[in-house]
Structures are given as structure tokens and as C-alpha cells.
Design a protein that fits this description.
Strand content: under 5%
Order of helices and strands: HHHHHHHHHHH
Largest sheet: none
Radius of gyration: 23 Å
Structural class: mainly alpha
Number of domains: 2
Number of strands: 0
Helix content: 55-70%
Number of helices: 11
């Protein structure tokens, strides 16, 4: 796994999703930038990436000079992210039958308590469960983690933390919630005081997140032998172009 690609990837996602101001961009070859763009497409976070690039280009000229154009890495046709509707947490599913029954019962009870209903808290629970369900089937849902952070930002002060943490215990989601919260704080520098469910750091969260990135990186990197072939071709092309220029100069 290339650490420079990973550092730039996280920096741009953090800038795009949470408008971070500490955005040091490391110089990379266009080949590496294209790997980064392909990773964003696979994780469905290309709009966060493009937004991060735009933020830095508009506010930080020193780091902007290290960025390619979005067209150069295949992000020119990214779809604008709809924070309200693009990530559908209603599809969340619990494998544990006991936890699933409790989840359905608490949702029904909350929906019937019209005077004390907390829609935002229910939605937050669904997002946490959706991300947990994804992690069980595959790996970390990076799109879902960023959506979780955006949802917390947008609904700050509207979450009933007492209800939420009680529901997390009932549905056996406390540990998974802590993992998601720890990824937000440790990877994306998200303010811990804005995460009402982060009761205990999940010590393996960063390792699990990095494993997800590493697996994606391995899919899109070009093998060493191919890289050497490309380098040789570039050298031949460069010399060939130079020879043509000399001939043209002589002809003129």
C-alpha cells in the first residue's frame, strides 16, 4: 500500500466531507492520482473527493499546486452527493434475530409516541446499523462513515443520546458504533464531542479501516513489471519525440 496515496486520499475526503482546513497535499505522479480516483469510485465517494479538491484549490494555493485536474483522474462526471437521499439507511438489516426483533419493537414504540418521538435519533441508529451490516458482509463502508459524520454535523443538538445509547445496547450495536465513531475521530479528525455514542475507543478501528483501503489499492495498482514496461515506453516515446523535433529543425 502506498502511504502517500492513502494520506492524500484521507486528506481530500476529510476536506470534502467536513470542510477541514488542515489539508497538506503531497506531490504524486498522475498514475498515482488515477489510482486514487479509482479508489474513490469504488468507495462511492468521488464527490467528496472532488469537493475536497475544489476546497483546497479555492483556499490553499500552496497545496493546490500539488493537485491534478479532476478530468485527469476521471472525476469530471461525478454526481453531486445528496446528503439527504443518496445513502439509504432504510435498507439496514440485523442478522441477529433477537436484536432484530428488539430493533423493530423500539422503532414501532418510538413511532407511536408522537409527543416524544425523535426522528433524528432513529435515523442515526439506522445509519449505524447500516454501516455495521456492510462491515459484516464486506469491510468498512467509507461512504457510510462520511455520511454518518455529515449527519451528526447537520443534526447537532437534535440527537437524544440517552435513547440512542439505550437502543444500541438493546440491538447489540454498542461495539460497532464505537468502531464507527473511532474511525471518524482517529482517521478524519472529527470532533469527539459531536459523537454522542462514542463511549469507548475501538482500538482496532484504524487497522480495519486501513485494511479496507489496502484491499482497494491492490485492485487498482499496476504490477511492478507493468510499471517498468510503461516507464520504458515513456522513455522511448520521449526520445522518439526528441528525434522528430531535431529532424523538423533540420528540415526547416
Amino acid at each position: 500500500m502506498n502511504p502517500i496515496i492513502i494520506d492524500n486520499y484521507i486528506t481530500l475526503l476529510r476536506a470534502g466531507a467536513f470542510k477541514s482546513k488542515n489539508n497538506d497535499i503531497l506531490p504524486m505522479s498522475l498514475h498515482k492520482w488515477r489510482i486514487l480516483g479509482n479508489m474513490a469510485k469504488e468507495h462511492h465517494v468521488q464527490t467528496f473527493l472532488a469537493d475536497g479538491m475544489a476546497l483546497i484549490k479555492n483556499s490553499d494555493p500552496n497545496n493546490a499546486k500539488n493537485l491534478p485536474g479532476t478530468d485527469d483522474i476521471g472525476l469530471s462526471e461525478h454526481t453531486k452527493y445528496d446528503v439527504e437521499g443518496n445513502f439509504d439507511a432504510s435498507k439496514a438489516y440485523l442478522v441477529n434475530t433477537v436484536a432484530k426483533r428488539r430493533w423493530e419493537e423500539l422503532r414501532e414504540g418510538e413511532m407511536n409516541d408522537l409527543e416524544n418521538i425523535s426522528d433524528e435519533t432513529l435515523q442515526l441508529l439506522d445509519i449505524i446499523i447500516m454501516n455495521a451490516d456492510y462491515a459484516i458482509d464486506t469491510q468498512i463502508n467509507i461512504e457510510g462513515i462520511l455520511f454518518l459524520g455529515r449527519f451528526l454535523h447537520m443534526n447537532k443538538g437534535l440527537i437524544d443520546s440517552t435513547k440512542l445509547n439505550h437502543w444500541l445496547k438493546l440491538t447489540k450495536m454498542t461495539s460497532m458504533a464505537n468502531m464507527q465513531g473511532t474511525i471518524l475521530t482517529d482517521i478524519f479528525d472529527f470532533p469527539q464531542d459531536e459523537i454522542p455514542f462514542l463511549t469507548k475507543p475501538y482500538h482496532k478501528a484504524e487497522d480495519i479501516f486501513m485494511e479496507t483501503l489496502e484491499n482497494t489499492f491492490d485492485k487498482h495498482r499496476i504490477p511492478l513489471f507493468t510499471c517498468l514496461e510503461l516507464a520504458a515506453l515513456e522513455t522511448i516515446f520521449s526520445r522518439f519525440s526528441g528525434a522528430i523535433s531535431i529532424v523538423r529543425d533540420v528540415e526547416e
